[in-house]
Amino acid sequence: MTATLPSDPPPALTEAPILAYAVRGGFLESAHRASLVALDRDGNVLLERGAINSPIFPRSSNKPLQALAMLRHGLDLPDHLLALACSSHSGEAFHLDGVREILALGQLTDADLQNTPDYPYNQDEHDRAIAAGEPKSAIFQNCSGKHAAMLLTCRVNGWDLATYRDVDHPLQQAIAATLADVAQEPVAATAIDGCGAPVMAVSLRGLARAFASVAAADPDTACGRIASAMRAHPEYVGGTRRDVTALMQGTDGAIAKDGAEAVYAVGLADGRGIALKVADGGQRARPVILAAAMQSLGIDSDAYAALTDAPILGHGEVVGGIIATGF
């Protein structure tokens, strides 16, 4: 398939202000444009940069909302496995064990997974797999927790397993309806994500609304169950070396999910929500911009050192870094 340029690029890309610079040896080498919004518990805008009503693909930041749809349709998992269903995991041993636990609940195996084969995200596990001569596999790939949960949800409902990734499948239709519900806006576009499942677009404002509603929900509700699982097991949502895990571990009441092409979404227990998208898709600026936004909102966190650790190297030595601006 040959890509063609749409006639109307989204304002979240074309109207995004510079929110971070790459500084090398005191010289401004590159700039990252981004759009960002923070909302209070009533949905009022607390912080706005760029086009916050422009649709974006949240990519993996949608995963807690996809898991919410599955809970609403009969999925029942212990908290650590529910957190894994919300994850872009690092492929560490406990992640892979958890994926197999989910599959076993539906009498399924690795062979039933349809996500794109890959090596583990964690560098040590990546290198170990290659050194051992292991091929890329679906279970290694960071979306296997979500896909295992999708298969189990289909098993619970008697839906076809072979076509669970199809946009018209009952599972994907349920996910679209849930996303529209919690974002409080219709899905603006649908495409295929890197893992092979559909990815659905909403605005940054809608994404922030969704995360705020999940984070502030009563623990006895489906939304509250997602939030409780993510808070209790942030290492399952990311991994032992991931900034998204550090963010949840270091920020009281927070849930968070990173996404490909430099998306980040955060919900706080007090009902605030934050969502951002770096226009060029460059991941290095994503946590730095988020940390600046959180600090400007007065959010206490022990994770700021991890979020802003973005060194620029010269011959293996630190010669600069990524610096947020505009806050």
From TrEMBL:
**Pfam families, per the entry:** Asparaginase_II (PF06089)
Q: Which domain of life is it from?
A: Bacteria
Lineage, top ranks: Bacteria, Bacillati, Actinomycetota, Actinomycetes, Micrococcales
> Could you tell me which species this protein originates from?
Nostocoides jenkinsii Ben 74
Q: What is the protein name given in its UniProt record?
A: Putative asparaginase
